[in-house]
Adenine phosphoribosyltransferase
Amino acid sequence: MSPDELKPLVRTIPDFPQPGILFRDITTLIGHGAGFAHSVRHLADRAQAAGAEAVAGMEARGFIFGAAVAARLALPFVPVRKPGKLPVPTLGIDYALEYGQDRLEIDPGAVSPGQRVVIIDDLIATGGTALAATALLRQAGARVDHALFVIDLPDLGGAARLADAGVTVAALMAFPGH
C-alpha cells in the first residue's frame, strides 16, 4: 500500500481534545494489519536510507512505530520516556507545551557517542516534543539529523522548526489544519 492508500486509514475526530481541533487518530491505521505493516515498511525504508544506526521513539505512540521499525531493521530501539519511568539515573530535558511544560528522559547509556539515531513518531504538529527529543539525544552524544513521522500537520510548523535545528523531516502523509 502506498502512503496515499494509507491516508484514508487515519480517522479524523472533530473537536478533540477541544473545539476546533481535528484530531488525527492513528488507532485505525495500526488496527489495520496490512496498513500498519506497510506504514512500518515505508518508515523503515526511509530510516535505512538515512543511515540509521538506532531508532528513537517518543512515548507513547512513537514506541509503536519506532520499535517496529527498529525490529524490522534489526537496530537498537531507544525509548524516549516521560519522567519517572526509567529505573536508572537519566538525562532529562524540560520543554514547553502549548499550555504548560513537560519533560522527557532517556537512559544515557542507550546511545553511543556519534551514533546516528533516527527519531520516529506518529505525528508532528508544532515540533516541541521532537525538538526536545533531538536535544536530549544530542546531549547524550547521538547524531540526530533525521526524523520520520507517519503524519505531518504542516500548518503548525513543526517540520520547519526541526529543519531549523538541522534535522531533515519526512512524513508518510500530511493533513491540513490542526
